[in-house]
Design goal:
Layout lengths: L2 H19 L21 E9 L10 E3 L4 E3 L5 E7 L2 E2 L5 E2 L5 E10 L5 E10 L2 E2 L12 E2 L12 E7 L1 E6 L2 E5 L1 E8 L4 E7 L4 E6 L5 E7 L5 E6 L3 H4 L10 E8 L8 E10 L3
Parallel strand pairs: 9-11, 10-14
Antiparallel strand pairs: 1-4, 2-7, 3-4, 5-6, 7-8, 11-20, 12-13, 14-19, 15-18, 15-20, 16-17, 16-19
């Protein structure tokens, strides 16, 4: 065999060897740093290849720092699902709000037979602003306590209408309305984005209880509503002028008393008139 043929044979062998080494790789996360989630969400961790013997995983394979538990699913697949270990009065599981945490995966094996010694999935949750009791204007949760809705992308928070939450001698107790408050003035434009909910209503009320506007948030959609502060509230109080910031209220409400808890995310962004 001449020198040229020998070199060609060596090159071909190198190519075949390289191709063979890439036939399979250990389990790999699709995304190690996903966007923030609602604390009430089911956390879905996705892998690029199918895992095997998922039903046999235990604490030696995955560890959640501080919170959460794994929901066992089908025997093979590319996803693992987790829920928080906290429970609302209505029985809904949730993670701590406003936190960053991680899941450490160990010795996961995929369908190609490869094992990953360790991988880490990081996640963060929105703040839970919904603090009971907040079923009236006087007990409304302050949106500005967690951020300034007039800056950047505004303020986002999570809440839940738990529906039936208990029974006393006086009768059943329900969580059907959540009130939130923020300071607005005439000509401010408020953008309200509602997601991750069943059907519910968002009602904007003025400082004197005037019901200014009602929006219907539909199931399975990201609903975006716009409210422009008018002058009607000034007629209720002659001591105010259009430049005075006053308390407005945003109420989340649904009437499905016998339904499962209704979690939601709300983003509030305020644009001031220049």
């Amino acid at each position: 065999m001449n020198k040229t043929k020998i070199l060609a044979f060596i090159a071909l062998g190198a190519i075949l060897s390289a191709c063979g080494s890439e036939e399979g790789t250990p389990p790999e996360l699709v995304n190690s740093y996903p966007n923030s989630i609602s604390p009430f969400d089911t956390l879905v961790v996705k892998f690029k290849s199918s895992l095997v013997e998922i039903d046999k995983l235990d604490e030696s394979n995955n560890i959640i720092l501080n919170q959460g538990k794994w929901i066992k699913g089908k025997a093979t697949g590319k996803e693992l699902r987790f829920i928080g270990t906290n429970t609302t009065p209505g029985g809904l599981n949730y993670f701590d709000g406003g936190t960053t945490d991680s899941i450490v995966f160990k010795k996961l094996k995929n369908a190609d037979g490869y094992i990953k010694d360790k991988d880490i999935f990081y996640f963060s949750t929105y703040t839970i602003l919904d603090k009971e009791p907040n079923g009236s204007e006087t007990s409304a949760n302050d949106i500005e306590s967690i951020g300034n809705p007039k800056r950047g992308e505004g303020v986002i928070f999570a809440g839940v209408l738990d529906h039936k939450i208990g029974t006393t001698d006086a009768g059943d107790i329900y969580d059907m309305e959540d009130y939130y408050t923020l300071k607005l003035k005439a000509a401010d434009t408020v953008s309200i984005t509602v997601a991750n909910s069943e059907v519910l209503s968002i009602i904007v009320k003025g400082p004197k209880g005037l019901e200014d506007k009602t929006f219907q948030a539909l199931k399975g959609k990201t609903n975006v509503f716009t409210y422009i502060v008018g002058l009607e509230y000034l007629l209720e109080d002659s001591s105010l002028n259009a430049k005075d910031p006053v308390s407005f209220y945003i109420k989340a409400i649904d009437n499905a008393m016998t339904s499962k808890p209704n979690p939601y995310n709300i983003r509030i962004k305020v644009a001031e008139k220049k």
